[in-house]
Design a protein that fits this description.
about 0% strand; mainly alpha; about 120 residues
Length: about 120
């Protein structure tokens, strides 16, 4: 990697860290209209490095940026799904609870739906 790319990666990593105070891997962002696969590749490298270093929140933020840049990136989507599932298991929430809550909301059973989100 070129020195300018390394310094750019360091800056982006710091910005992601500042932005990632409370990230939810279960929220998959919408992709932007125009794909930027080069930017997605940079964010993917950051995300993988952050995850390997044990910095889960910044990894999630970077994976979300990959999806924003390239909505069809299977590695980023798979990583977010895995991190979401791991987070739910750690919280004691079932991955299916969200789908159950949405179904309850659609039938007007809001209190029951809200109870599914309580820990």
């Amino acid at each position: 990697m070129s020195p300018s790319l390394v310094s750019s990666l360091g800056l982006m990593s710091a910005l992601i860290f500042l932005w990632a105070t409370s990230v939810d891997p279960c929220v998959v962002p919408a992709a932007v209209a125009a794909r930027d696969r080069d930017q997605a590749a940079v964010y993917l490298e950051i995300a993988d490095d952050e995850l390997a270093a044990g910095r889960r929140d910044t990894a999630v933020a970077a994976y979300q940026d990959v999806v924003r840049s390239d909505g069809n990136n299977p590695r980023a989507r798979a990583a977010l799904a895995r991190l979401c599932h791991e987070g739910e298991a750690a919280d004691g929430r079932s991955p299916d609870r969200f789908a159950q809550a949405l179904a309850l909301m659609k039938t007007g059973r809001r209190r029951e739906a809200a109870a599914l989100f309580e820990i």
